[in-house]
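MFS transporter
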Amino acid sequence: MGGLPRAFWVLFAGTFVNRLGTMVEPFIGVYLTQARGMSLAAAGLVMTMFGAGSLLSQPVAGWASDRFGRRVTLTGGMTATAVTMVALGYTTSLPGIVAAMLVLGVVVDAYRPASQALVADLVSPQDRPRAYGLLFWAINLGFSIAMVAGGWLAGSGFTVLFWVDAVTCLIFGILVWRAIPETRPVRAAQEGGSFTDVLRDRLMVAFVLINFAYALVYLQAYSTLPLAMTGVAGLPASAYGVAMAVNGLVIVVVQPVTNSWLARYDPSKVLAAGFVLVGAGFALTAAVASTPGYALSVAVWTIGEVLTAGIPGAIVAALAPAHLRGRYSGLYGLSWSAGTLLAPLTGTRLLEASPTLAWLILGGLGLLAAAGQIAIGRAVRRRTALTRLP
């Protein structure tokens, strides 16, 4: 953990505190149907609006990070999230809830492009995989605790969840504003500064499309997997909780130990290996029908997730010109937003057609993403070498 600047550790601490308070998103479906009495169809509409906001979030936040600065974007996004959380917690009308969820989708992850660009500004290229990996670990450790605490606090009423989430967002924003200097590089007059310039980078676009394919596979863990375990295998809902607990345990224990070791190897090869293991883990799901079997498949793809932890951020930072780091991170984040919106639709349709075939197709998609990453690996290495030149 040595050798990283103080400002990075402030970002690390703020990220951890923020994830400790992430209690609304995991329970939003339960809140809408139980606390607000919505039908499943109405709750689905609300969640769709959240997804639509998320699609806007990453490009807008990436642009703001480059235009106004990392500190302003990150603190502004956290403050807006805090206000929206409280407003949503007290809104009772359907139009009000829909509007609040749309805004929440825009602001809740607006910090990500700013955070990614901030790490690229603060940390040397050699240490970036390690730094991004540590942030990944902080997010997962905080979220694991939040899931347990949120389930317990929900018994006292959902309003407290909104307030806890809002307060931790404010703490994150204040920490960044008070303790992290602005790092936004100054753009030279001759340098481009729009998303058109990002989209002209064919290597970056290819990397984003590859990651989108991977996201379609990985995100089945939170949409199709619980349906397969309860609906197809006939297991209780608690079985999904047990299987997913393996995910948190493996990440919290294994990822810090392997972080520095993985940073020594070629990023594209490590990322491709991670894609292969994630694909293999989901393909293994086709052959299991018990809680231990599902837990084993989760363990396999979680090891793949650990391999991918800090690599994408380091690759994006290597591909991006310094003055466009926010926009590049925003485009990368868009692949996850699109995956979040489309993964449930893709997975459930495949599951309905054939449970066995569904997991094999998803496993194959993971292998396809790995092949794509290997194919662009030489170009990524060439660009990375250029960014390390004095």
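thats it. The chain is about 80% helix and 0% strand. Residues 325-353 form the longest helix (29 residues). bye
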